[in-house]
Amino acid sequence: MTVKVFGHKNPDTDTITSAIVAAIIERELGKEATAYRLGDLNKETEYALNYFNVETPELLDSVNSDDEVMLVDHNEFQQSADGIDKATIISVIDHHRVANFETNAPLYFRAEPVGCTATILNKICKENNVTVTKEMAGLMMSAIISDTLLLKSPTTTTEDEEALHELATIADVNYDHYGLEMLKAGASTKDKSTQALITGDAKTFEMGDNSVRIAQVNVVDLNELFERKEEIVDEIKKESDREKYDLFILVVTDILASDSRVIAIGENNKVIERAFDVALDDNEALLTGVVSRKKQVVPNIEKAFQSLYE
Amino acid sequence: MTVKVFGHKNPDTDTITSAIVAAIIERELGKEATAYRLGDLNKETEYALNYFNVETPELLDSVNSDDEVMLVDHNEFQQSADGIDKATIISVIDHHRVANFETNAPLYFRAEPVGCTATILNKICKENNVTVTKEMAGLMMSAIISDTLLLKSPTTTTEDEEALHELATIADVNYDHYGLEMLKAGASTKDKSTQALITGDAKTFEMGDNSVRIAQVNVVDLNELFERKEEIVDEIKKESDREKYDLFILVVTDILASDSRVIAIGENNKVIERAFDVALDDNEALLTGVVSRKKQVVPNIEKAFQSLYE
């Protein structure tokens, strides 16, 4: 039986390329493994797969009790395939907090506080004497560039930086030039529907009793997106009604300036003010120096919620 | 600030020695770390620490929001220090299922499906070029012997076996002879109070809506213990009332024959019959070939509970 390898819903570049690379590693180690995706590719990931001439993994709708699965770049069940609580999880490779995750039996679970799943996969290749091909290097390199915004995000660790240099050498690519082109490919919002903007890279977090949806969009031009604010807010309200989110936060990150402007919709959206010491103006605030959902947005909001309930 | 390193409540040999060894590794890597214990040592662990002339770690009552902690040999919060949900967990090294565990931030989390935490620690030493001293080798060796019942438990993997051989060489000890003496030191039930028997190595598992307490006692003579069955059952009933367990299972493992005799007390104790295809006689059944709580008892009971509710 083949192990199904996949990343989170609303796939980004790290989730897709890590699934592909992790499946290759498993096969190199003599196991049957196939990479899947849980949704459509974004433009950035398309650019990366095209550049390195790699096929898009097949779409996976759900898993069931017959499936053996390996999760990459996520562990929280609500971000995973439908039916994940029924499947046998044999392995997890991740770089996020651990939560809403549970198995019946022991498994291989490896999370490290680095900027990117690919950085861990690069280590796993070394530990198991798996040769990193040009293609694998290109994919892992793309993931690190994406997750660390070309090493500028505060999530970046020395390990990510070293891995990127190493992989760029193997892939034989100027990572600065390639990286900017890849990020730009994903950062144009003109041809994206409002629905796509708020669902493209969105994750749900349970904080206290609140279901908090946090979407992130990378842009090179904040104005291009905020000209559409009214329709975006309408769409967020509809989406929140439909999915019963208590709070919806859209984080619009300017990848050149390394700042984010957020729109926060929900009864308790004041939590943003407490979390970042800012004032909301028409449900909107500039978060100077904030670019990382994982390292900056999620923990600050979580702490703010906790202090609200104390 | 020193990182507090500890294993689970009701400490066993792997939990105590892994805390000691993990703290040594952290210090070798330039961090401040101190090993603690969450309860009294059992006779087996006392034997091991005495033999290798290692000091008993200090008792830790609880942790709080100022603490940075590292968990070894467990991850489920109900098995950990009181207040664990407030502390900052920076690292976990474990070989159990993952459940009832949650952090706000990314961390180093490493679980592998091997027989013993010490087997993973031995790998971590190699990965980080930390020299394994005679003392560390003796401690890790004792943990592997304890958790795998001298390599006879079905939880034993090739990695545990190889690690044991390697460590015994460094410790310069005949592991078969030492191991049997160490196991016997922990296996006499004569001088143990009934209370100690049912709480000494006990863990709570949430299964569906049930709080299931599973205690394990290793013996070399089943009769010695079952002569006291009546008082044991009384004590279990009192303990279950007090702690609101829905089911209490005492697994008495004959470490020489590699079988277990269980006593199951609780309204739904018939789950044992479904889990192991046996008939309970006076709340008691022999589970042939069953020696591992983690690999055999817990997953089978969990599955049986799931099928009951389907």
Textual characterization of the structure:
- The structure is a homodimer of 310-residue chains.
- In chain A, 41% of the residues lie in helices and 20% in strands.
- Chain A contains eleven helices and eleven strands.
- Chain A has helices spanning 13-28, 43-51, 117-127, 134-148, 158-171, 175-187, 194-199, 222-226, 229-243, 271-276, 293-309; strands at 3-6, 33-37, 58-59, 68-72, 88-94, 108-111, 202-207, 210-219, 247-254, 259-265, 284-287.
- In chain A, helix 1 runs parallel beside helix 3 (117-127), helix 2 (43-51) packs antiparallel against helix 6 (175-187) and helix 4 (134-148) runs antiparallel to helix 5 (158-171).
- The A-B interface holds A 95-113, 127, 294-295, 298-299, 302-303 and B 95-113, 127, 294-295, 298-299, 302-303.
- Strand 6 of chain A pairs antiparallel with strand 6 of chain B, so a sheet runs across the interface.
Question: In percent, how much strand structure appears in the residues of chain A?
Answer: 15-25%
The helicity of chain A comes to 40-55%
Q: What does the overall shape of chain A look like?
A: globular
> Which chains have the largest interface?
A-B, 26 and 26 residues
Poorly predicted regions of chain A: none
- Total of DSSP H or I helical runs spanning 4+ residues of chain A: 11
Class from helix and strand fractions of chain A: alpha/beta
Q: Kindly give the count of domains of chain A.
A: 2
The value of Rg of chain A in angstroms is 19 Å
